[in-house]
Amino acid sequence: MQTVSTLPFDHGISTSLAIIVLLASRFGPHVQQKTLAIEAGIDAAALVRILDQGEEAGLLVRCDVPNDRRSKAIKLLAKGKRHASKMEATLKDLRFKLMGDVPEEDIETTTRVMRLLEERCQAYLLNGKTDQK
User: Fold this and answer.
1) What's an example of a GO molecular-function annotation for this chain (predicted)?
2) Cα 42 vs. chain centroid, distance in angstroms?
3) Per DSSP, which regions of the chain are E strands?
4) Are strands 60-65 and 68-76 parallel, antiparallel or unpaired?
5) C-alpha distances in angstroms, 42 versus 3, 62, 75?
6) Domain 2-100, what fold?
7) d(CA 73, CA 78)
8) pLDDT at residue 44 in the model
């Protein structure tokens, strides 16, 4: 995230809001706030403030989740989708600069291992344990 925060997104929004817009775009329409908070690594209160900024900027809206009055889903508006598309293009260029000479199979292996580590860390934080002995 530190490297991403140095990128010249230059869309007139904060880095934290840019990350939320990007994550919402990747998860698709109606991603729940809780999911965004977990993926962004921030607490729910911080996310609420960021979402307030996003709504004020016309980037996103919060929607009710059917059958769950306590949850809210996030939907990107056209302006938010445009921001996300531009950020993805910038990130694609960065990935090529950083990883262009790394074999695809090495990237796939690393991604698989990092996802496994992330799952186990989340399970540990939630349950205080992992499935491994």
Assistant:
1) DNA-binding transcription factor activity
2) 11
3) 31-32, 60-65, 68-76
4) antiparallel
5) 18, 18, 19
6) Arc Repressor Mutant, subunit A (1.10.10)
7) 16
8) 84
CA dist., res. 59 & res. 81, Å (int): 8
pTM, entire model: 0.75
- Which among 23, 12, 32 is positioned nearest to 84, based on CA atoms? 23
* Rounded distance between C-alpha atoms, residue 62 and residue 73, angstroms: 6
Cβ atoms of 25 and 59 within 8 Å: the answer is no
Q: What is the mean pLDDT of residues 86-97?
A: 88
Which amino acid type is present at position 80? G
The answer to whether 92 and 76 are in contact (CB under 8 A) is no
Domain boundaries, given as residue ranges, for the chain: 2-100, 102-133
State the DSSP H helix or E strand holding residue 12, giving kind and residue range, or none if neither.
none
Going by the DSSP 8-state scheme, the letter that residue 128 receives in this structure is: S
Q: Which residue has the tokens 């349950």?
A: 127
Chain segment 95-107, per-residue pLDDT in tens: 898 889 999 999 9
Residues 77 and 61: beta-carbon distance below 8 Å: yes
* 130: CB partners within 8 A, 6+ apart: 120, 123, 124
